[in-house]
Amino acid sequence: MQPIIAFPALAGMTYPQLEARDLMRIVPGLDDIPTLPEAERAAVRVLMTSATRGCTDDIAAVLPNLGFVISQGAGNDRIETSALERRGVKVRCVGEALTDDVADLAIALTHMISRSLVRADAFARNGAWQQGRFEVGDSLVGMTMGIAGLSGRIGQAIAARARASRMKIAGLDRGSNAGLDASLHDGWRALAAASDVLVLAVPGTADLKHIIGAEELAALGPKGRLVNVGRGSLVDTNALIAALENGTIAGAALDVLDTEPVIPERLATLANVVLTPHIGGQTWGQRARGAKIAEDEVIAFLKAKDALPAER
Fold this sequence. Notes:
Elements (H helix, E strand, L loop, with lengths): L3 E3 L9 H5 L3 E3 L11 H5 L3 E4 L7 H5 L6 E4 L9 H6 L3 E4 L5 H17 L1 H9 L18 E5 L4 H12 L3 E5 L10 E3 L2 H7 L2 E4 L13 H7 L4 E4 L8 H10 L4 E4 L10 H4 L4 E3 L8 H21 L8
Parallel strand pairs: 1-2, 1-3, 3-4, 4-5, 6-7, 6-9, 7-8, 9-10, 10-11, 11-12
């Protein structure tokens, strides 16, 4: 019986070592796990999941010998980590596989909103260029980028790219941000006020819900821009729409929304917004890296537990 339960792999994700040993039982979704025969569930030592499927305590309860849950992504919103750890289940999110791709998108969005690149593309395509020059954009050189999540892997990768654009870096006044060559500021409003571009690269935990609201947007100011590659719940969307409509801030670039995949009509019609459909880590390279890391981690776990059958 297979010691691994996994879900159908996304395109670009392969597990040659696990497949060669016939270690994986593929099921359509979490709800299918409790329907498996008891003996098959008892054989399971590993659940390979994702940020969209996660793993609940109820699922762990029907897998009595589960010891390892690995998610091939950075988000753990749907993984009941505390409950799993109380059961002695190790939890691992393969966030490092998407660090560079998310950071690349954050910087790309920053350039797009600062140089109005979406509208520039339309300007060139629709013939307006024949009538005159496109509007002058804003240079990132000398600007300050405030990064929520500065000390994290993604935050540091974004900072490195911002510095390559000759930007200065700011962060929250926390011990984890000390020594990172950034100006530090006490609280979200202070960080927003110090930023020309405020980038959100933190998880959507309950304590961070709507950390960016009307007051923080006002502090960011009429020349400031917001970039969100973290989670939609970090931002009060109604307050953001009002700030964009009223010129409270200059613009926003959003890869995530708390209403996704639904885009509020008022937001979709605004010219000072760039929207992408939660694609921060969605690259072929990330999928290949994530699958390889996950496969290696699973094999190491099974070896340590003397639960790795020989290759067939």
